[in-house]
Amino acid sequence: MPELPEVESLAGFLRERAVGRAVAGVDVVAFQALKTVSPPVTSLAGLTVTAVARHGKFLDLDCDGIHLVVHLARGGWLRWRDDLTGARPVRPGKGPLAVRVRFAPGDDGAAPGFELTEAGTQKRLAVYVVTDPAQVPGVAGLGPDPLAPEFTPEVLGRIVGGSRTQIKGLLRDQKVIAGIGNAYSDEVLHAARMSPFKIAGSLDEEGVARLHEAIVGTLRSAMERARGIAARDLKSEKKSGLRVHGRTGQPCEVCGDTIREVSFADSSLQYCPTCQTGGKPLADRRLSRLLK
């Protein structure tokens, strides 16, 4: 799933290529992806992209005050096309294509655009056409952005204070902190040297400061790695930069211990026992506790 660093990189990618271009049309192939009816998606035709923003994991294209807001979900991605002239007409079907956004031809005669695709059978990619991004329920309920200046250790301390939630789950809750998902929560906790099942409210002042540093440092580092990379290459770049997530059975780059995994019904987490749990493996079952 694209998380804050990748979505911010996609936003930067589109700022360079889409801002200032007129929308020729938006073709919706996967009708379940379009979550709004007013304004109609056809209202985007003829408008100019004036800005591109990110809200948590949401991508927001401002088209003369009408916003095309996208959430790529688990299997979604954005594919830029330098020229859609002659592209096959879109037809509903079983392929990965969900939405195609076409721009008017430029001075060179090329008509660029981008396509939103979604792999897998669980179709969760979502597209909204709104006059205000806050009209999107997921955007309206977002917690603070962890890279905003206002996200201080004191703010994080108030977030975790008294919480009985395990820290892994808290980091992934978009209503608590915006933009962190399964992969970067693993990376943050490894950097902070914390068990994913540590209770958030048990953190002392030093632990909160260490977690804050790990959140900001991990996300900023990932953003720097992704800066300037073409959209098509972001997935592989993300994977190559991860130190624990998705690396079950491999040696930890910090201590050399073997990266372990805890599996759930629809996801899994990875961690280093030496770095995070005092050398003790976590039981591989839901609501795991340290093995005695």
TrEMBL record:
Q: What reaction does this catalyse? A: Hydrolysis of DNA containing ring-opened 7-methylguanine residues, releasing 2,6-diamino-4-hydroxy-5-(N-methyl)formamidopyrimidine
> Is Lyase found in the keyword set?
yes
GO biological process terms, alphabetically, are:
base-excision repair
> Which residues does the UniProt record annotate as the domain FPG-type?
243-277
Would you tell me the protein name for this molecule? Answer: Formamidopyrimidine-DNA glycosylase
**An MF annotation (GO) of this entry:** zinc ion binding
List keywords of the entry alphabetically.
DNA damage, DNA repair, DNA-binding, Glycosidase, Hydrolase, Lyase, Metal-binding, Multifunctional enzyme, Zinc, Zinc-finger
What are the Formamidopyrimidine-DNA glycosylase catalytic domain coordinates in residue numbering?
Answer: 2-93
Metal-binding as a keyword of this entry, yes or no, is: yes
Tell me the cofactors it needs: Zn(2+)
What family does the database annotate?
A: Belongs to the FPG family.
